[in-house]
Here is the input.
Amino acid sequence: MAICDFCNDECVGTRYPAEAVKAAAASGFRPTGAIASGNAVAQRLGLSDFNMADQWVAQVMADSSDWALCPSCADSLEAHLASNPIPARAPRPPLPPVAPRRRRWRLFGPR
Ligand SMILES: [Zn+2]
Here is the structure.
């Protein structure tokens, strides 16, 4: 038993390489179930400007490990890849800017 990386369902997973999922995300694929549930959680937490689709794409682009998908998520990914074949070099959408890490000042300087 594995947990689907898209919808968190328990399932017998099909593994997809990170490159395939990145290419699908770059050509517009979004796992609608995962995004709807992510947005629902954000709404419950009062995060009105949270955009699960953007978060999901950023996560896909940053992740280089395989994805395990349940049959229904694998089907939707396959359907997307069938109409959007993976190009030799997938164009990368721009990543969201990373907030600069705030430097922690030590009160008495480095030891
Ligand atoms: Zn799934």
User: Anything to note?
Assistant: The two ends are 49 Å apart (CA to CA). Strands lie at 2-3, 10-11, 14-16, 67-69. The chain has four helices and four strands.
